[in-house]
Amino acid sequence: MQNFPSVFESIKDIGPKHVQGLLSLARDFKRYSRDWEGLPIPFIKRPIIATSFLENSTRTKHSFAISIHKMGATYIDFNAETSSLKKGETLEETFMTLNCQGVDLCIIRTAVSNELTQFKSNPPIKIINGGDGTHQHPTQALLDLLTIQEMGMEFEGKTMAIIGDNVHSRVGHSLIDLLPMVGMKIILCGPKHYLPSDIQHPNVTLTSNVDEAIANSDIVYLLRIQKERHGKDDSATYETYPQNFGVDLERLKRIGKKVPVLHPGPANVGVEISADLIKSPYYFGYEQVKNSIYMRMAIMQAVLQNKDRRIGQRFEERTLQSI
């Protein structure tokens, strides 16, 4: 994939052609994975890929691990707790060491926003951001877009209501950058102090009226309250949030809106989303989890193949030629 970044930190690192290429490649991976009946798809050149999660993760870490297996690559689970990072080694030195040991790509999650920016000008290794602080989670936003496409929904002119902690959510920030790129509009909804004050985009509007946001949307995207990132106690908001901003089947029925509901997980059941909604046909959270495998395969291939055409699947040549 032409000119794909060696350090994929943010949605802002890519353009519309990259997005369309990734969607196409992810669908190819999904189809070919079924054809291969779970066997790894053979690489022309077998890479070594490491994951390093400095924050806890279930979905993202395991999704990447399974994706790496499906691609037939060698997987290394880099445990930061038992590494020299605990002895004061810098992240740059760690990346340089992994590179010298033959690691081709590292997927990293960190609690520090923008920590990967420093490596863009002179990458010590190829890097994918698995989520950094409150900054970005680009692979999640891209798999969400794949999920919307798999629903059979066109992007152009559609509106997504993103309801929740829009200030502290790295997923929300990536969606804000990605969705207008494909012609979608966004309604950010939540308590006023959970809405960003610096958004200036014609495709993005803000409201604290959750019923209005849902009524004017084609897709609802729910975000959990990021308690671990709040600098002060916000117990008053926590207590009233389910009633004021939580979404359940009763609220959708009252508004008279049947819309697909997405959630990046982990969900706080009974807070931003109800158990009955999760069990309903409107909930697509598990489809997001399924699609995460194939989109992350596509992203890894795009990063790996930058400046090295030996890496990749033979079936992707037609995708490459169209980008």
Give the gist of this structure.
Helices cover 37% and strands 14% of the residues.
| CATH topology annotation of the largest domain | Rossmann fold
Largest sheet: 5 strands, parallel
Q: Mean pLDDT, as a whole number?
A: 91
Shape by Cα distribution: globular
Distance between the termini: 7 Å
Strand order, biggest sheet?
Answer: 1-5-4-2-3
Please report which band the strand proportion falls in: under 5%, 5-15%, 15-25%, 25-35%, 35-45% or over 45%.
Answer: 5-15%
| Backbone CA Rg | 20 Å
Number of helices: 11
How many strand segments?
A: 10
Helical fraction: 25-40%
Our count of domains comes out at 2
Q: Tell me which CATH architecture of the largest domain applies here.
A: 3-Layer(aba) Sandwich
The helix/strand order is EHEHEHEEHEHEEHEHHEHHH
Structure classification: alpha/beta
Could you characterize what this model shows?
- Helices cover 37% and strands 14% of the residues.
- It has 323 residues and is an alpha/beta fold.
- The chain has a 5-stranded parallel β-sheet with strand order 1-5-4-2-3, sandwiched between helices. A 5-stranded parallel β-sheet has the order 8-7-6-9-10.
- Helix 1 crosses helix 10.
- It starts with 6 loop residues before the first strand and ends with a helix.
- 41% of the residues are buried.
- The C terminus is likely disordered.
